Amino acid sequence: MSQQQEYGADQIQILEGLEAVRKRQGMYIGSTSERGLHHLVYEIVDNAVDEALAGFCSHIIVEINPDNSITVIDDGRGIPTGINSKAGIPAVEVVFTVLHAGGKFGGGGYKVSGGLHGVGASVVNALSDWLEVQICRDGKIYQQRYERGKTMYPLKEVGTCDPEKTGTKVTFKPDGTIFETTIYDFNTLKIRLRETAFLTKNLKITLRDLREEEVNERVFHYEGGIKEFVNYLNKGKEPLYPEVIYCEGTKDNVYVEVALQHNDGYNDASFSFVNNIITPEGGTHLAGFRSAITRTFNQYARDQKILKEKDDALTGDDIREGLTAIISIKISEPQFEGQTKQKLGNSEARGAVDAIVSEQLTYFLEQHPQVAKLICEKSVLAQRAREAARKAREATRRKSPLDGNSLPGKLADCSDNDPKNCEIFIVEGDSAGGSAKTARSRATQAILPLRGKILNVEKAREDKIYGNAEIRAMITAFGTGIHEDFDISKLRYHKIIIMTDADVDGAHIATLMLTFLYRFMPELIRQGYVYLATPPLYKIEKNKKVWYAYSDEELNRILTEIGRDGNNKIQRYKGLGEMDAEQLWETTMDPERRILKKVLMDDINASEIDAVFSTLMGDKVEPRREFIEENAKYVQNLDI
Ligand code: 0R9
Question: How distant, in Å, are the alpha carbons of 283, 341, 582 from that of 336?
Fold first, then answer.
């Protein structure tokens, strides 16, 4: 009897379900871009993490195989292999072939990890060329294979194993006809798996890249969980006190974990998670945390007479200056609200976080009066600085409004009034600025030359930042205002193009500008308005013909094409200033010929982005050196 004839109504429904996933992939995994491709791995890993959260799995291995297929192995109980009475097929087959099956079958527990997508293994199966699962359970090894979601043979025994050893191994190859790319990025998986390990105390996660002869392996294992996460995020910063404050508890079925520590910086780096997934827009859990710390610190400061009766209360912003915090909750039925469905709405989460943090933080402050005093004093300083900043901002507003009514003198503005058509080049140095002003297309291209390096906003308080002429010029030119005044609809240019020399100094200036944009106007990056110009590295001349090369590989390609002989004249550009206006136009500014790099930011990586900026731009040398050593391989064309 063929497989086809064995199919009953249930199986036909299954196939129709997975066919729907293949047709409307976006609905199930968000996108078929690189992001969706990586999401497949997270779906399978999340199932193994659930097994860890249930207390049965301590090690997860993720391997990128030479053909860009992925293997995930866990040492949990193994997916049940017995027949599921409702579906009439083994539970494991239900997991991989029935939409949204997840943990509703078998164990009876709920799916804890995942949450936002949490679409499950069947979607990964539907979107894979093939998927194979092997289970070690009761001393036997079971196996099943699927191709594009279809079961290839009934679950079979393929060997025996040590009865003490149990676990699940899943290997899948994403379908190249569905995904825009099927090449995995080690770094992307590394960031996510490290975060998962931080959020799941004691779980060890090994990531292995088997695509090169020399295997690249990283192991993430944090006994301290989110306490170590806070240490990691603060590694480029100077902590105000050595302890990481930690609160933990369960209330109304919400498991709450919070870790926090202040540093001597000025930013709030708080990140909230629900069921191990970051919630970039926060929600009730974050609101509960904020109200708890504001109330608790004000109470303490009043009790200890750090705040006198006549003094204003500290605001949340004052207390969160220089704060690094992780708020992580586990909840069985998370509800998400807002336009992007990324904001937690469960009201019981607010109460649970508020109660647990208030109680345990109050106790901590009583036990650690020196730490409490340091935090309160820093908050009082922040309160005063905020008042000074408000005055500075109002003074600047009166003199030269930050809302764009009076433009900076150095700006050569464009004549078109429609922001969609307009771009602004932020140019390093007056001389390159001069060439750019001559070269530009006046209707649509504005030029703002900046003198030297702009202020490092990572190390300055707001009042000083508003006082900086270069930063004020940018804010005024963009037209959006900043912070609570920020209004993206007032943006005057839909392309903000940072144009700096292709050398170390230029890279530093570009990083300073990106730091400013990231900290003060992150929405510009998030919505894709920020770009980096790419000036050429070489000019090649031969027999009165000219070529430009933007990388060493391109130089080699051109030289091979035109012949490597004595007639070639090769010029290595050291900076934008070496190009005349015409050269600058044709190589770097002409929309028809230039290369622009869009600066992208994915909120999923929010904590990592914060750590990168504070490591690169902060005071500590050693973490910066480590970061540069680890990431040097990703840098191209930096002339050191
Ligand atoms: C390598 C990736 N790992 C997994 O996908 C994975 C799923 C899974 C699992 C259970 C144990 N380990 C797992 N690894 C499990 C076992 C039992 C009960 N619940 C869960 C048990 O032994 O009783 N499952 C996830 C869903 C299911 N199993 C189920 F629906 F089949 F039960």
Answer: 8, 5, 53
Q: What is the CATH number of the domain that holds 243?
A: 3.30.230.10
Question: Closest residue (by CA) to atom 15 of ligand 1?
Answer: 79
Pairwise CA distance, residues 46 & 274, whole Å: 13
Same domain assignment for residues 238 and 387: yes
pLDDT at position 273 is 96
Is residue 259 in a domain? yes
Whole-number Å distance between alpha carbons of 226 and 199: 6
Single residue among 328, 361, 393 that ends a domain in this structure: 393
Q: How far is the CA of 109 from the centre of ligand 1 (A)?
A: 10
- How many folded domains does the chain comprise? 3
Q: How many CB atoms lie within 10 A of CB 149?
A: 24
234 and 165 both lie in a single domain: no
Same domain, 627 and 498: yes
User: Would the CB of 91 count as within 6 Å of ligand 1?
Assistant: yes
pTM: 0.85
Q: Is 72 touching ligand 1 by the criterion CB < 6 Å?
A: yes
Residues 75-132: tens digit of each pLDDT: 999 999 999 998 899 999 999 998 864 443 333 333 444 443 445 899 999 999 999 9
Check if 501 is active-site: yes
Residues spanned by the domain of 314: 226-393
DSSP state of 607: H
Distance 73 CA to ligand 1 centre (A): 12
Predicted confidence (pLDDT) at residue 628 exceeds the cutoff of 50: yes
